[in-house]
Amino acid sequence: MTSVLYDVPGPKARRRSLIASIATGLLLAGALAWVIATLAGEGLFDAERWDIFQDPLVWAALGNALLVTLQVAVLASVLAVLVGSVFAVLRLSSLKIVRVPVTVVLEFFRGMPVLLMMFFILILFATSQYWAVVMGLALYNGAIIGEALRSGIVALPKGQREAGLALGLSPLKARLLIEFPQAFRAMTPIIVAQLVVLLKDSSLGYIVGLEELVRRQRTLAEFYGFSQYGFSFFVITLLAFLIVNLTLSWFARRLASRTPGGRGPRRAARAAIGESADTTVIRTAGAGGA
Amino acid sequence: MQFLIESGDVLLEGFLATLRMLALTVLLALPLGVVLAAMRISPVPSLRWVATGFTELLRNTPLTLVFFLLVFVVPRLGVVVDFQISAVIALTLYTAPFYAEAIRSGVNSVPVGQAEAARSVGLTFSQTARFVIIPQALRSVVPPLINVTIALTKNTSVAGGFLVFELFASSRRLANSYADETIAIFLAVAACYLLVTIPLGRIADRLEKKVAVMR
Predict the structure, then answer these.
(1) pLDDT recorded at residue B67
(2) pLDDT greater than 90 at residue B151
(3) Contact A20 B46 (CB under 8 A)
(4) More exposed terminus of chain A, fewer Cβ within 10 Å: N or C?
(5) How far is B1 from chain A (nearest CA, A)?
């Protein structure tokens, strides 16, 4: 990495940097060794804590729960994009009677925790945990995606809409056929990044009582003895989430770097995503994560 | 009538607990975020790697799992602390990388010419950072920092699922005792969260416009 902030290091600076690197390296290795030694001292790497994973049934149970997590996430993602598209178009409506209530609802959904939404969907509509989680995720992320799409539409050059109207399209048609597709393409990286957040949030199903990966690993750990297997199940679950999420984040970043540099919204989208892969830092989406 | 009195008390208590947790986490996570951001732009490669690794690890882990680790797994390893403290630690670990990224993107938003000019005048790395980059970056850094804080406000609700009493937990308790008043409880609790998140969002928006005009 070269930077204008400092010169290409000369021999002296390189030596100093090397010393600093070795020092932090040693410090880190020491800390890591201490953690591993402590964990080993607790017997966490003993075979008896991990023997459970020889049983294919355990893997099947974890795999099924991972499927539930992914299923919830995929279903909620599709719904969230649909909800977001509708929100975006309605919020830009020229009719005050449509625009104002939609704006209020959007603010309401964006400003409260997803968890609260899931919990009250669960008891107010007496649905299953599965649908409470799916609908909670869909509405909350839909509101955030809607805001992103809206800012994408607003950032388009005015000429796009005017050209559409000049060709004789109705205002709604100009929005749906000319502006929306461009905004959607420009905002795709942000939408994908938000879907990574959605996938992470699907684990909130644990609190609402959905038998997804986090809850399943706890159930299993408790069934086989939490003090013996609690740690190993946690490690496996963490690895599963990291693999799925890192793949998705990588995909989001790739998508962002492949989005051709254009004016307005594309650049905004690229800037937002290039800086931080999974927070939607654009000002319309104060989502931040989880 | 009894509903109003009792629920008001419980809600207020929950709201205050949430605010306390929020304040504590900001106080801890913000400095940690600054350190992480400084490490990520530093000339020493190993510092960059450590910060990048930490950031990537925590940003791709669900907050629920971070809580699970600190509330259920760590105590079994012999480190027993109060749940409230575990919750603040979990939120801090999770939020700090997001703060760091916000700061880093603010630093990156300072035009390269500024750094080049500073360097060509002969300022060193630390002088460039202190007198040229940071004062300018601070301005554009505030709105994303506020956005992360808004997300944090909403994330405090996860603590309610891990044995900590706060606003979300208080809504659960109330919904259990007053099944007929569920809608009222929901709206009241949502209003409490909105009371924090919407004003913060407005401030961020306004600051952002100000910064945008100056550029």
Answers:
(1) 94
(2) yes
(3) yes
(4) N
(5) 22
Q: Which two tokens stand for residue A18?
A: 């090397």
**Cβ of B154 and A114 within 8 Å?**
yes
| Domains contained in chain A, number | 1
Q: Report yes or no: B125 at the A interface, CB cutoff 8 Å.
A: yes
Residue A189's Cβ-side half-sphere holds a number of Cα atoms within 13 Å equal to 30
Cα–Cα distances (Å) from A16 to A5, A103, B27, B51, in that order, read 17, 56, 33, 19
8 A C-beta contact, residue A272 and residue A259: no
Chain B hits for A287, Cβ within 8 Å? 147, 151
Residues of B in contact with A231 (CB under 8 A): 73, 76-77
Closest CA to A120 of A104, A102, A108: A108
Domain ranges of chain B: 2-214
Determine the topology of domain B2-214 in CATH: MetI-like fold (1.10.3720)
Task: Give the pLDDT of residue A289.
Answer: 43
Residue A177 DSSP one-character state: I
ipTM of the complex model: 0.86
CA distance A31 to chain B (A): 12
CATH number at residue A166: 1.10.3720.10
Can you tell me the distance from the alpha carbon of B123 to that of B162, in angstroms, rounded to the nearest whole number?
A: 50
Stretch (H or E) spanning B19: helix B2-41
pLDDT at A39 over 90: no
- pLDDT-based confidence at residue B192 (cuts at 50, 70, 90): very high
Tokens matching residue B33: 């975020």
CA dist B102 and A206 (Å) reads 29
